[in-house]
Structure formats: structure tokens, C-alpha cells
Amino acid sequence: MTAMTVPGIDDAPVQNARLLSWVREVAELTTPDNVVWCDGSDAEWDRMTSRLVEAGTFVKLNEEKKPNSFYAASDPDDVARVEERTFICSVDEAGAGPTNNWMDPAEMKSIMTELYRGCMRGRTMYVIPFCMGPLDAEQPFLGVEITDSEYVVCSMKIMTRMGAPVLPLLDGPAGDRFVPALHSVGAPLEPGQQDVAWPCSDTKYITHFPETREIWSYGSGYGGNALLGKKCYALRIASAMAHDEGWLAEHMLILKLISPADEAYYVAAAFPSACGKTNLAMLQPTIPGWRAETVGDDIAWMRFGEDGRLYAVNPEFGFFGVAPGTNWKTNPNAMRTIEQGNSLFTNVALTDDGDVWWEGLEGDPQHLTSWTGQDWTPDSDFPAAHPNSRYTTPISQCPVVAPEWEDPQGVPISAILFGGRRKTTVPLVTEARDWQHGTFMGATMSSEKTAAAKGGLGQVRRDPMAMLPFLGYNVGDYFQHWVNVGKGADADKLPKIFYVNWFRRGEDGRFLWPGFGENSRVLKWCIERMEGTASATETAIGYVPTAEQMDLTELDTPIADVEAALAVDVEEWKAEIPLIEEWFEVVGDRLPTAMRDELEGLKLRLGL
Ligand code: GTP
Ligand code: MN
Ligand code: MN
Question: Which of 261, 280, 491, 539 could form a disulfide with 568 if both were Cys (CB 3.0 to 4.6 A apart)?
Fold first, then answer.
């Protein structure tokens, strides 16, 4: 076959042969009008954003209120991750496990190859070199995303380290390990055909090939489906790498807490999507003398350091945060971060003076343009912003970012929190007896479904370690991996594990615990447990504080509510057991014996 000459290929800015042949192959398959290598410069950002404004995809926001920032409204059907269209195409079906959709890799590739054929017609194909984690890491984690979406290019500039600085790494020792990540919105343009503001396709596939470390995504422009460095690489593919190499890739925030004695503690926390990671990551403590700084808000890569402690790195460069509910009271630091501009806002509402608004934000707008483009007033019977609307903003702008957030060694983790959104049963905080018990807590954690994924809002489901939608391999093997990580480590140096629930409700549906900044009281208790200075009460499910055992100074929540938030209701837990058993049935024969033992222990302690 004669190689066709595509501009942007013959003059590519790298030598990496594997990369060049892949770029050429994709260009030949998808037949874009041209090929552009992204350099990540501000000039490129200006070019791209102007183009998107012209195309009607972006609205430039009021420069005074949100400098260099843009608003985008997606297709009303392309607003969240599509879990039912997400596949782990491992060689063996068992490799994907019972919690993932699976298809034979060859079969999937042949289906998707037909979808990709000619799919970039009339569009530009962008090649985005990127790096997850610091560029100066001993072993940088490289990727290259090919996309036909300028929205993706702009978003990737905020969310990852990308462009020119990555090129020398692609030609360096780590170059061959780059993860190829192919994305198309799946909306080719015929000559003269007018583009729509948000091109996408009704046919969507978000596909991962864990053995060959490849990502193929088709049909969606939404963040989690299209910014392939994030969920697809840094969680699904990285979890498979981590399993093979003995480390952990987790859906966790990383928070630095500084005590009144100026002691720093790093905490990682796994909560399902839209359950409070970004909020906790930017916590403004309410207890006097305590300070908090942010290292990461969504993903943690953790490996053991030479000193035997577990170190965490945030592989991302930006925050992709849930907008609704974010305000000066719930997350002042997120507000300060986006106020500085250089941000994108997707599916929020637009104010008449060119700013953004969403449910829960301060202000009392009398008229808005909703995310669906409709006139909105306070009397409207539909929300102004989509519940999963998001802001995309640089971490470096966060006023409380920890100075060490880009340290390639990471930060030593003292505590791991697991948490879900449960109206009942799960107390505000429970300390695990040891690593294996903590692994059991993570393996059995549950949450009510949120708007971050399509369908089933409010339904309780098991979401192990908040990784259910993000695990790149068999969930039973994943639990065994967690058990093994603990076994191989020095028990004294392992992080302590806690299970938290900010979302328990009273009979009238009110939250029993005020949450947000007040969560610092829970963190303080966790740290004092590690220091041996706080007491706890041993219960069937683990160590739980009474209200007296926590620092509630000047908390204006009724003490009875705090007590109800902390209560261990044995009857509720007895009712939870069949649900856990049902879940373990789903996990199947790869469920570690250690997890069965933990369940038996819990049943005994509950008197079952
Ligand atoms: P992803 O970014 O999708 O992974 O989710 P996330 O875990 O970062 O979720 P985020 O922090 O954006 O949480 C969003 C939702 O959780 C909003 O509805 C918040 O109001 C709510 N939330 C966060 N923290 C608390 C809390 O302490 N108490 C209560 N009641 N709600 C909270
Ligand atoms: Mn997330
Ligand atoms: Mn978040």
C-alpha cells in the first residue's frame, strides 16, 4: 500500500516510530481534512477558543467576571458518562469481571473500525501529546489523544500536562509506553454541511483494551467519555497497570491537613462521583487552628516509597468539578479558583450579563438562559443548569493548592477514607480495625446513584472503593490486590482506613450532619485516632466515636442529630448483610477468602 501524504504527518514534531505509524493509520482510517499537532500554547488556546465561539460551541464569558473563560452547552443527550456503553475488552471475559461490559477485543475493534472509517471527514484531526502526573517523574506516564473535537483540545489543556513539553518525553526512554487514546465525536461533515454546536453521535462506545493499554472512544464529547487522560487512562488503564506492577490507581482526592501544632497529614478519600471529593479536597476547616491544602480532587496514584510508606500523586492538572451546589459557603476555594478565569463551564446556565450560574450558587437571578438554551426565570419548572454541569479549571489557580502538589515522589498518606451517600445505616465515621477490615469496608461500600452517570438516580448500589465504573479488570482480583498490598507492607506504616457518610438523613429528610467545612471535625478525630489521642467506641462494624468523643465546639447542629448521625443501628446492619452477600455473589469465585472471613466476622459480631 502506498502511504498517503497527509500534512501534519510527514512534518510531525516527533520521531517515535510507534506513534507516527499510529497517527498515520488513524488519519488513513478517519480521513480528516488535516492533521494538527497540539503544542499547548496560549496562542493555540486563543485560536481554538475563537474557532469554537465562531462555531457556536463556546460563548465567551464577561471578561470582567470570568477572564479568558467560556461557556458550552452540550447536546441534551451527551451530558454524562455512559456506563452501559463503556467496555473493558480484555482478552478473556473473566478479565473484565462481572462489573464491566465486555466484548472480545477483536470483535470490538472490527465494529469500531467501521465506525471510525471516514468519521473525521470535514474536520481537523488533532494529535494531543499528554502526560499524566509530573513531567519530571522518574517514569512519566505518557499518552497521546487523537481527537476531532476542539472542545477536547481546550479541555485537555486544562486537565493535563500536554503539548510541546511532552514531545521530548515521547522520544525518550518512556516514549514507547505511551497510551494511544483515540477519540472521535462521530459526526463527519459532508462538503458544505453546516456543523452543529455540539457534534456527537447516537452511537457511543467508550472502550478500553487493558492488555495492550489502548483506549478507543466514539460518539460522545462529554468530559468523562472524551477527555481520555482522566477516567479512561488514569483510572481504567492505570488500574490494570497498577495491578500488574504492585501499586494502586484510585478514584480518590488527596488532602493535606495541618494541625495547630503545624504537623502535616495527608489523607486520601474515595467517594463515588458527585459525593463530595472535590468539596473535601478544598475543605475550609471550621475548627480553629486547623488548615487544609489541596493536592488532588479526583484521582490518586499510590505506590510505596523506600521508607515503606504509601505515597500518592495526583496525575491531573485541572479540576473537572460538579457545578451545582458549589458556592461561597460549600466550596469557597473552588469559587476562588474559577474566579481567576482560564476556565470552561459546560451545561451551566448563562446570566444576562455574560456570567455563569447554577442551582445552589449565590445570587438571585431573575432571568437566565438555561443549559438547554431556554429562557429561565425563578418560576420555571426546570433547572437552569444540568445537575451534572461542570467547571474545568486549572489546579494551579487554587488558592489553597499544596506547594508539593507537583512533587513526582508524591505525598505520604496517613489515612484513607471510604465514603458513600447513604440516607440510613452507615454512621458519620467508622474506623477499621486493620487494613484487611478497611479493605472489606471499601469492597462493600455503597451509595445512592447520582447524576454523574445516566440512569437510576437515587438507587443504592455497591460501589467498591468508588471504582465500580472505573475498574479496568476483575473486581475480585482488585480486592485481592488490595489485600496483598496490605500484606506486603509494614503494618505500622500503612494508612489507617475509615468509612464516612456525610449524607445520613433524619425522618424529615434533613441531613443529620452539616458537612462541608464541618467535616474537618471528623478529620480531626481520624488524625487523633492515629496519634492515639482520641477515644472511640468499639462496635460490631468498627470503632465509632460518640458525640462526646468528637470535637464539637461551637457546632450549631443539635447534639441529637450528631448522635443520630453516629448511631450504629444493629437492626439496620442486619438488614445490610443480605445485600452484602448478594454483592459477593455478583463478585463470584474470585472473591478473596479474606473478604469472606471479614463478612463472617461481621455477622458474628452482629449476632447473626
Ligand atoms: P466527581 O467529580 O464526579 O468524581 O464527584 P465528587 O466526589 O468530586 O463530587 P463533589 O465534591 O462535586 O460533590 C458534589 C455533591 O456532593 C454536591 O451535591 C454537594 O452539595 C454534595 N456534598 C459535598 N460534600 C458534602 C457534605 O459534606 N455534605 C452534604 N450534605 N453534601 C455534600
Ligand atoms: Mn470522579
Ligand atoms: Mn469532583
Answer: 539
